[in-house]
Design goal:
alpha/beta, five-stranded mixed beta sheet, 12 helices, 35% helix, 21% strand, globular
């Protein structure tokens, strides 16, 4: 029910609509909404126009009622954001980080960052989403053998942070958070920011999440509140990876290992990669970046993306990470050109910028249980 109200935006929904969409009885909806109202999570949004009877009371989510924090632990930088229930950023900090300094140093940096972005008046945090380079075990909350950083293997990062913060902590890969950020940005577009402007409306148009359903809501619903159904998020930063949003949710695989996009081999007997293989897309793409040849880096990324699109038949390819953000037009055009050249179907996927950061995606994952999405 909260998810439906979030997707409806400030205009809200009536109790009869909530009953119809959830399959609950009107009596059950009345009891649940009364409880949510008492908790401060929902409020009246006015009355709908009369159709001959008594005007219906509309209900809306109260975004400022609760907050969550998302933390992006990168190899050389840490960024943390605090978001409200609509996913809008209301606090942020960032700073340098040495991932190679080891788990204990990184834990201290995360604890400090959460304290910095926490609400000064003490609004309760629902939880903290922490995302880091993979591989890692999302279910167990432990780190894997991160490429180039073997000392992290087996470290129980989620458990240690829960003990230090006293809050629920979700641990995931940075690329999965990037995929979740796509859905979060779609939803934030329905909620005006503090100045009354649609938060991410430009992103929604750019990424091809056009109005196709009733009331201007796209037909590609991923869950009750709406959002993209199938997309891949490609992250190009200090490493290369993919997040998969399939069937309305993040796809992680049986062992949390899905999305190791950067280590598919494109060139047999190519240059050695830090993973131990040769000719991986990561070493080829980042090598071109290091040489200053961004069009070639985009072409290499596009070839790897075309392989992924051919396997998964996704609707959208979203690009993010600091390398892409430094030259967005080059990467969108370069990847798009390769996908167009290799397309077997004229209805090829949209290529666009992700429009939201990985830290925002981490916070979106932390909000998931509130809206009935077990992560």
């Amino acid at each position: 029910m909260l998810d439906l109200l979030r997707g409806a935006g400030p205009a809200g929904l009536g109790r009869a609509e909530l009953a119809a969409r959830t399959g609950l009885t009107p009596q059950a909806v009345s009891k649940i909404t009364a409880r949510l109202g008492a908790d401060g999570l929902i409020a009246e949004a006015g009355r709908a126009a009369s159709t001959g009877g008594k005007p219906r009371t509309l209900l809306r989510l109260v975004p400022q009622a609760r907050h969550a924090v998302g933390v992006h632990v990168d190899r050389d930088e840490l960024r943390a954001v605090r978001v409200d229930l609509a996913g809008r950023v209301v606090g942020e900090c960032r700073g340098p980080l040495d991932f190679g300094a080891g788990p204990e140093a990184v834990v201290e940096a995360v604890v400090r960052a959460v304290a910095r972005v926490a609400d000064p008046v003490g609004l309760p945090l629902l939880g903290v989403g922490v995302v880091a380079p993979g591989p890692l075990d999302h279910r167990a909350g432990t780190m894997g053998r991160v490429t180039g950083f073997p000392s992290w293997k087996g470290f129980p990062l989620r458990g240690v942070l829960q003990g230090r913060l006293g809050l629920p902590v979700l641990l995931d890969k940075d690329t999965n958070a990037g995929a979740a950020a796509a859905a979060g940005a779609w939803l934030r577009a329905t909620w005006p920011d503090a100045e009354g402007d649609a938060g991410d409306a430009g992103y929604v148009a750019d990424a091809g999440f056009g109005a196709g359903g009733a009331g201007g809501v796209p037909d590609t619903y991923g869950y009750a509140g709406g959002g993209p159904r199938t997309c891949v998020y490609l992250h190009v930063g200090t490493g290369l990876g993919a997040g998969l949003w399939l069937g309305g949710g993040v796809y992680r695989g049986a062992r949390s290992a899905a999305g190791e996009f950067g280590h598919q081999v494109l060139l047999m007997d190519g240059p050695p990669c830090r993973c131990g293989a040769r000719g991986c897309v990561e070493v080829l793409c980042l090598g071109a970046v290091a040489r200053g040849d961004l069009p070639e880096a985009a072409r290499i990324l596009g070839e790897a993306a075309a392989n992924l699109v051919a396997l998964l038949d996704v609707d959208r390819v979203l690009l993010g990470g600091r390398v892409v953000e430094a030259a967005p037009d080059v990467f969108v055009a370069g990847v798009g050109a390769v996908l167009a050249a290799r397309a077997l179907d004229p209805a090829r996927p949209v290529v666009a910028l992700a429009g939201a950061g990985v830290a925002e995606g981490a916070a979106e994952l932390a909000l998931g249980p509130v809206f009935g999405r077990a992560e």
